[in-house]
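User: Fold this one for me? It's MFS transporter.
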Amino acid sequence: MSDTLVEPSQDIDPGMADLTIKQRYWLLAVACMDVSIVIASMVALNAALPDIARQTSATQTQLTWVIDGYTLVLACLLLPAGAIGDRYGRRGALLTGLAVFVLASAAPLVFDAPAQLIAARAVAGAGAAFIMPATLSLLTAAFPKTERNKAVGIWAGVVGSGAIVGFLVTGGLLHFWPWQSIFATFVVAGAGLFVLTCTVPSSRDENSAPVDWLGAILIGAAVAVFVLGVVEAPSRGWTHPMVWGCMCAGVALAAAFTVVQLRQRHPLLDVRLFGKPDFATGAVGVTFLFFVNFGYFYVSMQYIQLVMGYSPIQTAIALCPLAVPLLILSATTHLYLPRLGLRACVFIGLLVISVGLLCMRWLDIDSSYPQYAWPLLIMSVGIGLCTAPTTSAIMGAVPDEKQGVASAVNDTTREVGAALGIAVAGSILAAHYQNQLLPKLTGLPTEVREPILSSLAEALAVTPRLGPQGEAVAGLAKRAFLDATNSALLVMAVVLTVAAVFVGVWAPGRDGEQLRIVRRLRTRRTPPPDDRSWQWSRAGRGW
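Assistant: Here's what I get for MFS transporter.
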C-alpha cells in the first residue's frame, strides 16, 4: 500500500467486476439477512428478562449485563474487526463472525447460570462485531457508484427496522415457548445464514497493508471503557466515580488513539477524515439518530406495556408502523438524495424526528393506539430521511480499499449513540419518576414505598396488595411515569435540534459545498487545498 490516502478512483472492486445484476442483488439480500440477526439480537432478550430472572435467579445487575455484555463487546471490537476484514477478506470475516455467533448462542441451551449466560452474550457480541461491518463493506465493494446509494439505503432500512423485527419474533416465541427458544432461533438462523453467505463473493484490500494492532487495542479499549461508564450511569448515577472515571479514561484513550493514528504509516483509521464535512456529518448524524432511537425505544416500550397494558407481541405489532416509512424512504434514497443534498436530508430529518418526539408528549395515561401511532409515523419519516444518507456519507468519503473500516465507523457511532441514548433516557426517567412520586407516598410503609419508587413495573406488581388504595397509588405511579417520560422526550428533542443546527451549518449541500460563510471561515484558517489535499503526510500534518 502506498503512503497516501486518496479519494477512491475505482468504481467497483476488481474482484467483483464480473458479477451480474442478479448476483449483486443476491449479495444484498444475504448481507441484509446477516446484519438483521445482529440487530435483532440486541433487543430480543429485553422481553424475556422476567422469565430469565425467575428461572436463573439472576439479580437485576446480572440481567442488565445479559443485555449490555453483548453491546459492549460489539462496540469495542467493530473497528478492529472492520480492519481485519479489509486485510484478510470480508467474506471470511463475515463467516467467522457467524460461526462465533452461532456457537455462543448455542451455549445458553446447555448452560443457564447467570454468569454463563452473560459470558455467552459477550462472545456473541464478538461474533457480531465481525458480521456487521463486513456486510456493508461487501455491498460498497460490489455495487458501482451509480447504484451504491440504493444498496446502502436498503441495508440502512433493514438496520433501522431490525429492532422491530426482533421485538416481533421474540414476542411470538415467548407466547408459545420458554426464553431458550430465542437462542435456538438464533442458532438455526445463524447456521442457515452461514450456508447462504458461502455463496457470495469476497473482497479485500489488494494492497495488503498490515493491521494497526496498536490502534486496534487503543480504540477497542477506549470504546469499551467509555460505553461501560455510560451503561453504568443510570444505576450508579452520573457523578459516581466509576462512571465519570470510565468516561474520562475512554476520552483519554481516544486522544491517545488519535495521536498514534496521525503518526502511523498505515493507520487503522485516518482520523483526519473527520475534517471532511460529509464524513463528519454522517458520523454526527448516525450518533444522534441512534441516541434518540434507542432512548425513545427504552421509554416507549415501557409506556406501551405498563401504561397501555400491551403484551410483548402486541407491543411489537404496535411498533410495526415505524418500519413502513423508514423502509420506503431508505430504499428510495438514490432518488431524492441527489436532488436535495446531504444537508437538507439530514437537517430536515432530524427536525422531523424532534417534532415527532414533542408530539409524543401529548399522550396521557388513557390514550388510545391511534393517538400513539401518528407521532410514531412522523418520527419514522424523519428517521427514514436520515438513516441512509448519513451512512452513504460515511462510506462515500473513504477509499474503496478501506470500506471495512468505514463501515465499522458507521457501526461504532451507532452503538455509542445507542448506549448514550438508553443511559440518558433511563437516568432522566428514573430521577423524575422518583421526584414526582416520592412526596405522594409519605403515608405508606417503607417496605411498600421502596418497590413503588424503584420502577413502574414494581409499582404495578405491589399495588394490587394494597387493597382499596392500590388503584389510586397505581394511578399516581402511572402519572409520575408519564411526566418522567415527557421530560426524557423533551431532552431528546432538544439534543436532536442542536444536532440538526450543526448539520445545517456544517454539512455540504446539493452542490457538495458547505455554506459560503463556513467555507470562508475555513479558508482563513487553513491554506488552500491542492490536488494532493487528501493525501497522507508521514509527518502527521493535517489535510
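One thing worth pointing out: The chain has three domains: 16-204, 211-266, 276-520.
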